[in-house]
Design goal:
This protein has 157 residues and is an alpha/beta fold. It has helices spanning 11-17, 35-45, 58-65, 74-83, 99-105, 123-131, 147-156, and strands at 23-28, 50-56, 89-93, 109-113, 135-139. It has a single domain, classed as HUPs (Rossmann fold, 3-Layer(aba) Sandwich). α6 (123-131) links the parallel β4 (109-113) and β5.
């Protein structure tokens, strides 16, 4: 039986476990979880049977967001995500991009937030999604909700 937090080398087991089900995959830093994240993940879950969240490791968050991030450790962020009922599995990945995890997981659907478009996604991620026969869906953002805004508000107090 798979736990909710699955080590990256075992991600392929998720595909085997749910071979007949529609796997929805998304990824991100999820540093300070807020209502925008919760609504996004709930909407993503509605698109399939199993929701897998790829979580950037602490090292990859620093590369993407700068030396002061993440605020919360990867183990804390993974545990928080795993506590959400809409999330079936969390996989922490080490790279800046999720390409290798997409290839291993072989989802049916790859979901990203509205701060992306298919054209702005990294080409290697798009190629990985297409190579496993998955679709890409861009979900709208929740206006006024972002980790950056939260951090700025906290710093003002």
């Amino acid at each position: 039986m798979l736990g909710k937090i699955v080590p990256e080398p075992e991600a392929a087991i998720i595909r085997k476990t749910y071979a007949s089900q529609r796997i929805v995959f998304t990824n991100g830093c999820f540093d300070l979880l807020h209502v925008g994240h919760v609504r996004y993940l709930a909407a993503a879950k509605q698109l399939g049977d199993i929701l897998v969240v790829g979580l950037n490791s602490d090292a990859s968050v620093r590369l993407l967001k700068g030396p002061d991030r993440p605020i919360n450790s990867e183990s804390d962020r993974a545990e928080i995500l795993a506590a959400l009922t809409v999330v079936d599995h969390v996989v922490i990945f080490q790279e800046m991009r999720v390409t290798r995890l997409i290839s291993s997981l072989q989802p049916n659907l790859y979901v990203k937030g509205g701060d992306y478009s298919v054209d702005s996604l990294p080409r290697d991620e798009v190629d990985a999604v297409r190579s496993v026969g998955a679709e890409i869906k861009i979900m709208p953002l929740v206006p006024g909700r972002s980790t950056t805004q939260l951090i700025e508000a906290i710093q003002k107090t």
